[in-house]
Amino acid sequence: AIRSAPLAALALALSIALAAELVRPSGARAGYDAWTAEGGPYGGRIHALVCPSDEPRRIYAGTERGGVFVSLGDGAGWEPRSEGLELTDVVCLAVDPLRGDTLFAGTGGGGVYRSTSAGAYWVEVGAGLTSPFINDLVFAPDASRLWAATSSGGVFVSLNGGLSWTPSNAGLTALSVRAIAFAPSDPEILFVGTSSGVFRSADAGATWAPRSSGLAHGSVGAVAVDPLDTNVVYAGTLGGGVYKSTDGGGSWAQAASGMGNLYVRELRIREDRPDTIWAATNRGLFETFDGAATWTARIAGMADTTAQALLRTDDTLYVGSYWGGVYAAAFPESGWAPRNERLSNRFVWELARSPHDPDEMWAASFGGLSRSDDRGETWVDVPFAPDTFDLRTVAPSPDDPIDLLAGAFYGGVFRSSDGGASWTKSSSGLGASGTVTAVRYKPDDAAIVLAATYGGTYKSVNGGANWSASHSGMGSKKVWGMDGSGVAPGLVYAGTYGSGLYRSRDFGGTWQSVPIGESYIRAVAIDPSDTSVFYAGGYYLQSGLGGVYKSTDGGATWVSKNAGLGNESIWSIAVDPLDTQHLLVATVDGAYESSNGGDLWQEPADGLLPRDIRWVSFAGERMLAGSYGGSVPWYEEISTGVELAGIPAPGPLSLLVYPNPFNATTTVRVDFEGGPVRAAVYDVAGRLVRELDGGDSPEGGRLAISWNGTDERGREVASGVYLVRAEGARGWAAQRIVLVR
Q1: Segment 16-37, tens digit of pLDDT
Q2: Quick one: the chain helix, strand, coil %, rounded to 5?
């Protein structure tokens, strides 16, 4: 399906959101006919936290790969606000000090974006920027200037609300700038932290002078100026803790007692008590009450102690972490508690469905392990081993529903015999690589387990208690992916990094190279009903080809299957057990779907953001994706109950509805390859609203049909969400639309 057109204005956007909620019946939930990840798993990687000065309960979070989220209640619940962001790696945020609904987002490779609608919609405003990697954005107190720190272009300044930018680098010899701070008592005075120390400006950035004497750790990630004394400056270094200057940067001395040589990502000074300072470090939050003479760690309640962002409101501190999302602590001294409800920004590597309960699913992610009891609609985190948070694979036992195995990046294998309540490391004999990319039970004997690692494959004959090398014929190759067959329990395929594809017919006892013509194989999948049909996904590198390969003769010959897909890097392939012609693949550009065994691929639905997908899976009629920065989106098509007699199997057809949203008339545009085409509008419960005019052309082409928001009897229908479905001799497509009266 083709994505909906951007919203035109905030008022319309808010009306749409309200209409969508009001018309959704109790049985129709998000995820039906549109991808959603609102059920989690929650948490993620937070780079920035800001709030409007006049509305401190409204908090914005900038995330890695997940765009922007907003909470309207002190972080109690979050909603995505990324419409219009072409790149969703948000490194920094800034709120206009005079207009709280105007925000700027600096991205890691996409320049600067602006929203004038409280984040409802974003537009790029990077004219004049020569570096697209933005590390910091800082407003002057009167909003007359906006400064940007870039990774390779130094400092830029905008005098017109971000519409255009000019470099401001006179005297700045280090152009990798990581942080900017102005003196609150004199905003003409600026300090920047760079890869080569600190620089100072006394004329709002027009000219700069180095100020690094005594700064033994020159890579500076954070700077802060005392709100009452422009001579007192703090620098947070990357590997040397905090340094302090009392002469405006003329000289520095380390001020890290109690902290040590940590990486400091952000500093915050309490405006009314400038001797109180907070530092976000790679070992958690540190605070001082004596102007950095001594520091104390404040980490009680933090599962993730890698702090990256800081925000202080009147009575609460917020910390953005590396994988644990947002934490909050009330003044004066309380422990931290996560504030991640609906913050779906986890990096999910693999999904697994229980063989005992079709509703139970498991997610292995950068952030730990999560379980769903409703086929991925909602998730709960499962406590895991301390200091092990990057899980790459999870496998429920085919024999006992309470037995599980999980594999970690540089962490080995872990074992649970109580449904995930507790875990024991179980890596004896596993080899030196430490990274486990896949764990698979033998379907007919759960005592036998195969683990894929960066040093070959290993086998256990006692349920994962200990391991021995099992890669005869393969060697200690870096194994990226592995899949076995439930029909032929000994059959396993393994894809490697740079060494092609291997097959074993005795569950890893011996391996044979399978000629495929592709060296980098990340994804493998066996047809569950026919073991002679196999799919492999190539990873596009300098010497790799990428795309999907299919064999229908047990791997003897292969055919490239990339129509509609191209040579994308393939992370995962899933074959639908209910219809083995129905396939999903995960790529860095989204999930793609095929209904004819890979002959043609198309994106399955709107709403799948972020685009970077690392795993795909089926659970009954539901499709699920493991997203790199978007948790677990899922999608299930609304059944309209309409069938067209004589229509052949689905094939190529595309649909675009514009404008969308609309309030008078919209156009349904159908591109098709030939034959009759028919379109209709349905409500969210699947009831027919209006049959639309169709067409018939042997050559195919483009058909444009208007709908004026009326039903079959010519009556105006209410505002709300509707479904347009077009069906033709060679396929079908559907799109959700919104009518606002």
Answers
A1: 333 333 333 333 345 566 788 9
A2: 0, 45, 50
Claim to verify: residue 699 and residue 727 sit in the same structural domain: yes
Would you put residue 184 in left (φ > 0), alpha (ψ -120 to 50) or beta? alpha
Q: Is residue 50 part of a domain?
A: no
All residues at 6 or more sequence positions from 13 whose CB lies less than 8 Å from its CB, including other chains: 7, 83, 117, 120, 121
DSSP secondary-structure letter at 718?
P
Domain that holds residue 681: 1-28+645-741
Q: Which among 580, 610, 635 is the end of a domain?
A: 635
Q: What would the pLDDT profile of 606-621 be if each residue is shown by its tens digit?
A: 666 678 899 999 998 8
State the DSSP H helix or E strand holding residue 513, giving kind and residue range, or none if neither: strand 512-514
Extended beta strands in 420-478, E state: 424-425, 436-442, 445-453, 456-460, 468-469
pTM of the model: 0.81
Residue type, 554: G
CATH, residue 457: 2.130.10.10
Two tokens, residue 216 = 């033994």
User: 423 with 392, same domain?
Assistant: yes
- State the chain's mean pLDDT as an integer: 88
Helix (H/G/I), strand (E/B), else coil: 347:
strand
- Length of the chain counted residue by residue: 741
| C-alpha pair distances (Å), 255 with each of 22, 228, 245, 259, 287 | 56, 19, 9, 9, 12
Question: Which of 677, 680, 694 shows the shortest CA–CA distance to 729?
Answer: 677
Cα–Cα distance measured from residue 706 to residue 709, given in angstroms and rounded to the nearest whole number: 9
- Residue position matching structure tokens 């609102």: 38
Q: Map tokens 């995505």 to a residue.
A: 80
Q: Which amino acid is at 615?
A: W
**617 and 669 belong to one structural domain:** no
Selection from 232, 314, 305 nearest residue 270 by Cα:
314
Q: What are the b/e assignments for 361-373, b being 16+ CB within 10 Å?
A: bbbbbbbbbbbbe
Residue 727 contacts residue 647 (beta carbons within 8 Å): yes
Given 605, 635, 665, the domain boundary residue is 635
Q: φ, ψ for residue 253 (rounded to 5)?
A: -140, 145
262 close to 241: Cβ distance less than 8 angstroms? yes
Residues 563 and 689 in one domain: no
Give the C-alpha separation, 578 to 299, whole Å. 48
599 and 550 housed in the same domain: yes
DSSP code for 4: P
10 Å CB burial of residue 517 (0-12, 13-18, 19+) is exposed
* pLDDT band per the 50, 70, 90 thresholds, residue 105: very high
Alpha-carbon dihedral sign for residues 74, 76, 82, 87: positive
The CATH code of the domain that includes 718 is: 2.60.40.1930
Looking at the fold, whether 522 and 669 belong to one and the same domain comes out as: no
pLDDT band at 663; cut points 50, 70, 90 = confident
Same domain, 577 and 454: yes
650 & 619 share domain: no
Residues in Cβ contact with 356 at an 8 Å cutoff, skipping those fewer than 6 apart: 396, 401
569, 522 contact by CB (below 8 A): yes
**Residue 136 falls within a domain, yes or no?**
no
Note whether residue 98 is domain-resident.
no
Residue 680 contacts by C-beta under 8 Å, 6 or more apart in sequence? 640, 642, 688, 689, 690, 691, 692, 724, 725
How far is it, in rounded angstroms, from Cα 612 to Cα 614? 7
Q: Rounding to the nearest 10 degrees, give the CA dihedral for residues 470, 476, 482, 484.
A: -20
